[in-house]
Amino acid sequence: MLKNSCILLLLLIFFNACTVFKTIPQPETEFRGFWVATVVNIDWPKNGNDAIEKKKADYVKILNFYQDLNFNAAIVQVRTAGDAFYESDFAPWSRFLTGQEGKSPNTEEDLLRWMIHETHAHGMEFHAWLNPYRATFDLKTEILSPDHDFNTHPEWMLKYGKKYYYDPGLPEVQQHLVSVIDEIVANYDIDAIHYDDYFYPYTIKDEVFQDTITYYNCGLPNQSLGDWRRSNIDSLIRKSYDVIKKRKPWVQFGVSPFGVWKNKSTDPKGSDTKAGQTTYENLYADPLLWMEKGWLDYLIPQVYWSMDLPVASHRKIVDWWSNNTTNTNLYIGNGPYKIRNNSDSAWENKKELPNQISYARTKSDISGNAFFSAKSLMTNNQDVVKYLKRRLYKRPALPPNTYESSVSKNHWTRLHSIEKTKDYTLLRFDNLENTHYALVYKSGKINDKIYPPKKFLTRAFININNQLVLPTELIKRKKQIALLFVDKNGNQSEPKIIHLKQTNRYDSKK
To answer: Dihedral, CA atoms, 275, 334, 76, 390, nearest 10 degrees?
Structure first.
């Protein structure tokens, strides 16, 4: 009897252990993003004075971590406060990148181009994140470059609290910011332009944002101050979207607004929350209008509260956005930086973040999540990371399309050569000028036409040399793979089998 009881107990322990780590069914397509904050070196680089090789190694370390979690998009801050992480005609080099504002990096290499290449080589999209209106991070204006807009266009600046801001109501400011966007899109192979939640600044008690003169000169007759301010933000959003699509239609435009649009107490259409500030009333941003007008490809509301926090429940806010989002992809912004680092005790539970991901997946109108910020899970809370990997992010997933796609049977290209390095395998093809990326699958049969999600390996981007860049580690034990090429309009080719051991110049098998 005792023996049978022990056997039963062992079986129960084994069953429960398997249940704990059982993979939850995972979406075939899902946005999995993470924000890389560069302002005051939150995530990267760790110090602007670091050597270039250390900066590179630290960036790759971030990519490796999130690649292991099967994430597919890096949202990297390239403009923090009137500065730039790239050579620009409209802004000085950022001190957070080089240690001194206006000082170029100690390398002839284009560092942003390198970052985009590395991000793509890890199978991820690169979303260039900009803070449009913050002109300075503090009042230490003496450290600003002579080329900073604070010095060249002081008439654009408004002091509020302990920062200076661009005046959003000035047409010249709007045009300047649109030029900043156009420069990035024209010069770099990015996948998206991304704005954060800083439009008009968060309200500071007993302080006034001094844009009265601009309102008097630029406001329409009988237009309230609030409506005028919102119209200024609307104008920037529309113009940003238009210039992106005119330059490169396949580049996305996304915004991550503050999580609460309005409280129900001030508008019946608002969420059942008691947020101290709101996107519509304090930041003068109206993402509902932007969606209605079709000015966005995606929206990531920052819902950084715990599931059942009384004043701002993550659950209730997610429900609200799910019920009020149209004409765009909707992802949810999560705040892992709060795990075991917040007065809200809910964040002590290792399942708080996983529960949020699982809840978003129950909503058909939500297509993924983004984490703030990159370093939050990299050094602490490894139990949470393990749980996420084993149960929620076991397999790779494709981010949702922002356009309608179809199969193009006539898409054909020849494999020219295969070159292997320690880290990457480079496949050189002919005629890839209009190809955006390739979907890479495990392949066992020549005549496979449909590849299930469990065979998906990664998304491989095409570099400027017409090469497909694959991590060597990903394919080193495989004899062949299947590629589905996707062009810049979203059209997908039929599968093409690639024999990785081949040495002939041209491959003619399909």
So the answer is: 180
Q: Are 426 and 487 in contact (CB under 8 A)?
A: no
Backbone angles phi, psi at 248, to 5 degrees: -145, 100
Q: Residues 426, 397, 257, 312: is their CA dihedral positive or negative?
A: negative
Taking a C-beta distance cutoff of 8 angstroms, is the pair 81, 39 a contact? yes
Nearest-5° Cα angle at 234, 134 to 260: 75
Contact 141, 164 (CB under 8 A): yes
- With H, G, I as helix, E, B as strand and everything else as coil, classify residue 332: strand
Beta bridge mates, 492: 407, 486
CB contact at 8 A, 196 and 131 = yes
Q: C-alpha 75: how far from its chain's center?
A: 3
Q: How many CB atoms lie within 10 A of CB 189?
A: 17
- Residue 25 has φ and ψ, to the nearest 5°, of -50, 130
In sequence order, what are the residues at sequence separation of 6 or more whose Cβ sits closer than 8 angstroms to the Cβ of residue 252?
A: 127, 191, 192, 193, 297, 298, 402
- φ, ψ (nearest 5 deg) of residue 201: -70, 155
Question: What is the helix (H) or strand (E) element at residue 171, kind and residue range?
Answer: helix 171-187
C-alpha dihedral sign at 39, 175, 236, 209: positive
> DSSP labels for 23-72?
PPP--SB-EEEEEE--GGGSSS-S-TTS-HHHHHHHHHHHHHHHHHTT--
Query: Rounded to an integer, what distance in angstroms lies between the CA atom of residue 435 and that of residue 447?
Result: 23
CB-based contacts of 466, cutoff 8 Å, min separation 6: 428, 429, 430, 432, 433
Q: How do beta strands 31-36 and 73-79 pair?
A: parallel
- pLDDT digit string (tens) for 45-65? 999 999 999 999 999 999 999
Sign of the dihedral defined by the CA atoms of residues 418, 419, 421, 426, in that order: negative
**What distance in Å separates the CA atoms of residue 66 and residue 21, rounded to the nearest whole number?**
20
pLDDT, tens only, 415-465: 888 888 888 888 888 777 778 899 999 887 655 566 788 889 999 998 877
Whether residue 505 is predicted with pLDDT greater than 50 in this model: the reply is no
